[in-house]
Task: inverse folding
């Protein structure tokens, strides 16, 4: 990099910024500046100046009680960057030292000195420390200086990761600020609590990206010592600075927050770096995460006392435990329907709502375990629930989903947050669930008829351009939420209908819907979510669109769908925390000692982040539905961020797991409280863990250990189901099984997947090392647990390495000493 300062009457300012690109210097086309800014407020009254800029609209409506206080915070004068006074200036003195430039300014309110130096390890980084000493008491905030003014009408991408992103400014303040659809056209300053990677950035039309990255330790620690400190506000981050210029800016401390008040002669400092690279936004965001915040090093700290496989086995017992799983049976329209209690907020509920979550996981677990209680006492009633969930009256809603929840007292289905029906509800609660059920029972005529009816309803609601309405009012049939578009993968339901029913019209409609979605959502960085209680703030539906597009690509082989999936996956990485840097520092959590890395947010994804999302207060979630999809994305792109993010979410999360049931809490701040009011979440956890493990076996074996994937699960992300058809283990056809006691691995870092080739009398145990260290462990096999053979004995045992080389082991001992490389895979083949 080359930055050239010149002196003039106004002081030292930047004359030129250049970057070296493939051996040639390229001048940044943006107007250069170098202007400094300090925000100042003499007292607390000055902090409240500003005002509402929602332009007269009531938002959010009074029913949305969860997000009203968050929105009120987000539209405070400080967060709208209107509080206090902005003092803008150019330095009037400089010193040149070896490898360092010092720029200084004396002002009536303060003395300021800034040091500038290149990072020797990362030559596209410029490290800056600004020190301020107060001459008068008051509140002070240092802004990272304005290097350049980017063209607001011509840029490739801009983002505060986790909050908003896009390739254009959006004059619709609520859509931009609350939904993250493009960049707000007014200066706003957002908190670090939902900024996933601390690197506001702009990629200009030259494909040069500039980011500002605060030094690690500047942002809030979400659990600083012995209680939640998620809401502490140390950093303000923006794409447009106080003057409205497009220049990524970070503020520290934040006016009115900790350390911002200075008495006379007190001081503060702020260290950060500018990254300017001839590269796209994703490359620069990765640099912030991996190189500055050391995200890729997080896996080295991970320790565990229980494998994920063991967790699945424990949850398999939990979900059939009548007392723990809160299973309920209810009569409804000549059927007995079954589901689990849901104790969260539901429209019209008297704490009597019941719900099923992951039908694919339910049918998968029944097939893999052969558990008769699950098969006889759960699945038939869950199936009835699904049959009852479709609207059967021949009116406007005929064939649509009546709602996610059943209210036992009032004997009716309802949507989460109001009397409305969403087209995506048909995709989710009818077509995805029915699709996965039909993979296991393709001859179920009632389900096939229900799927066809749902497909016809969804098709009839599709607009000529390939889009859908967000929802319809159940009373008037009128479209609702007209202020936002249905920027969700609603089209996927028609893809499922094509796959199972074979009618070409469904595939053509799915492509049309996907084409609209690519143009309006992915290309613009604009999304909404599926959680009604947050008024559809963007969420894990974005990750679902990645897998939906990959599935569509597998059928039609048009690269535009794969390319769009990659683009959406890159955007979704900004739903994953990459800060603060995990450490081994000791903390107290509910009276127990925990290392910082055990409760780290790094690697966990949002339910929904941004301005409105639950992550503002609760932090991220433990439901890592994206883990398997990110491994599949790594297979396509070879970009290691997907690999690291997948494993960082899945590994070493014991601090959040209820040890008795194996169920993790939902929200980060619940720590190890288990399922809590959401017992049905165990099914989603079984589903995502199995998807993650089987995606790892596929990846590590180079596709030699692979099993067919089903359809995406509803609502929480892109994980898919397995077990409905046989796969391959190094050339041998085998079916997945899950049998407690069949395998016992001494090390908790060993994950295992088991499969059976009954006709060849072979049982496969696929072992994986989920650690960065080489591993030697004892593995104990119990052939008597092989399903279908009560007295099975081993007659020959072989070991298959990752390259497929088969080595016969001497003797028939069922106790084996196994060595696994870091991230390694080996397969035990038991001939019985």
Result:
């Amino acid at each position: 990099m080359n930055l050239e300062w010149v002196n003039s009457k106004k002081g030292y300012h930047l004359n030129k910024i250049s970057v070296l690109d493939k051996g040639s210097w390229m001048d940044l086309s943006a107007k250069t500046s170098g202007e400094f800014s300090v925000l100042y407020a003499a007292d607390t009254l000055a902090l409240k100046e500003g005002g509402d800029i929602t332009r007269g609209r009531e938002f959010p409506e009074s029913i949305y009680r969860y997000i009203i206080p968050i929105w009120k915070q987000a539209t405070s004068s400080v967060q709208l960057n209107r509080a206090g006074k902005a003092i803008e200036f150019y330095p009037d003195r400089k010193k040149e030292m070896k490898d360092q430039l010092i720029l200084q300014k004396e002002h009536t309110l303060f003395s300021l000195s800034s040091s500038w130096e290149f990072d020797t390890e990362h030559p596209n980084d410029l490290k800056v420390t600004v020190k301020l000493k107060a001459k008068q008491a008051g509140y002070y905030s240092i802004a990272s200086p304005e290097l350049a003014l980017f063209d607001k009408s011509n840029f490739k991408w801009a983002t505060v990761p986790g909050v908003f992103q896009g390739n254009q400014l959006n004059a619709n303040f609520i859509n931009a600020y609350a939904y993250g659809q493009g960049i707000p056209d007014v200066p706003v300053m957002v908190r670090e609590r939902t900024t996933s990677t601390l690197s506001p950035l702009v990629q200009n039309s030259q494909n040069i990206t500039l980011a500002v990255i605060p030094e690690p330790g500047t942002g809030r620690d979400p659990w600083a010592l012995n209680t939640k400190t998620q809401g502490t506000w140390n950093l303000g981050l923006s794409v447009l600075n106080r003057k409205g210029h497009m220049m990524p800016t970070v503020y520290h401390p934040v006016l009115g927050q900790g350390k911002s008040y200075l008495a006379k002669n007190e001081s503060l400092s702020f260290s950060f770096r500018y990254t300017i690279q001839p590269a796209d936004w994703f490359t620069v965001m990765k640099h912030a995460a991996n190189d500055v915040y050391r995200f890729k090093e997080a896996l080295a700290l991970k320790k565990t006392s229980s494998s994920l496989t063991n967790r699945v086995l424990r949850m398999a017992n939990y979900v059939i435990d009548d007392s723990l799983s809160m299973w309920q049976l209810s009569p409804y329209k000549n059927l007995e329907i079954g589901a689990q209690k849901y104790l969260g907020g539901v429209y019209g509920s008297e704490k009597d709502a019941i719900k099923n979550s992951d039908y694919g996981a339910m049918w998968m677990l029944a097939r893999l375990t052969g558990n008769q209680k699950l098969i006889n006492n759960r699945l038939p009633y869950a199936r009835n629930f699904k049959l009852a969930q479709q609207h059967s009256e021949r009116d406007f809603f005929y064939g649509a989903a009546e709602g996610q929840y059943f209210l036992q007292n009032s004997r009716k289905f309802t949507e989460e947050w109001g009397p409305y029906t969403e087209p995506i509800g048909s995709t989710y609660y009818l077509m995805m669930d029915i699709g996965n059920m039909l993979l296991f029972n393709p001859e179920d005529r009632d389900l096939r008829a229900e799927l066809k009816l749902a497909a016809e309803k969804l098709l009839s609601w599709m607009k000529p351009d390939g889009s859908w309405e967000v929802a319809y009012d159940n009373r008037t049939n009128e479209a609702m939420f007209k202020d936002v578009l249905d920027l969700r993968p609603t089209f996927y339901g028609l893809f499922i209908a094509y796959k199972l029913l074979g009618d070409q019209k469904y595939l053509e409609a799915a492509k049309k819907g996907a084409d609209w979605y690519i143009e309006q959502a992915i290309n613009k960085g604009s999304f909404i979510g599926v959680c009604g209680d947050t008024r559809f703030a963007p969420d894990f539906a974005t990750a679902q669109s990645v897998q939906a597009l990959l599935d569509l690509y597998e059928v039609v082989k048009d690269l535009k769908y794969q390319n769009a999936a990659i683009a959406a996956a890159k955007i979704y990485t900004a739903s994953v925390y990459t800060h603060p840097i995990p450490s081994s520092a000791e903390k107290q959590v509910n009276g127990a000692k925990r290392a910082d890395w055990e409760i780290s947010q790094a690697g966990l994804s949002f339910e929904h982040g941004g301005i409105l999302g639950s992550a503002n207060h609760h932090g991220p979630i433990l439901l890592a539905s994206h883990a398997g999809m990110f491994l599949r994305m790594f297979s396509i792109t070879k970009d290691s961020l997907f690999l690291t993010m997948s494993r960082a979410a899945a590994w070493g999360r014991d601090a959040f797991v209820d040890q008795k049931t194996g169920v993790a809490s939902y929200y980060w701040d619940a720590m190890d409280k288990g399922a809590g009011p959401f017992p049905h979440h165990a099914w989603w956890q079984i589903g995502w863990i199995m998807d993650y493990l089987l995606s790892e076996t596929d990846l590590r074996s180079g596709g030699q250990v692979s099993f067919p994937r089903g359809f995406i699960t509803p609502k929480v992300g892109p994980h898919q189901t397995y077990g409905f058809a046989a796969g391959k283990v190094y050339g041998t056809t085998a079916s997945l099984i899950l049998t407690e006691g069949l395998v016992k691995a001494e090390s908790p870092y060993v994950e295992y997947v088991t499969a059976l080739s009954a006709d060849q009398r072979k049982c496969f145990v696929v072992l994986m090392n989920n650690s960065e260290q080489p591993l030697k462990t004892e593995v104990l096999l119990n052939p008597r647990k092989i399903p279908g053979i009560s007295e099975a004995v081993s007659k020959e045992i072989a070991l298959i390495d990752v390259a497929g080389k088969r080595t016969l082991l001497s003797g028939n001992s069922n106790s084996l000493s196994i060595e696994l490389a870091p991230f390694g895979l080996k397969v035990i083949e038991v001939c019985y």
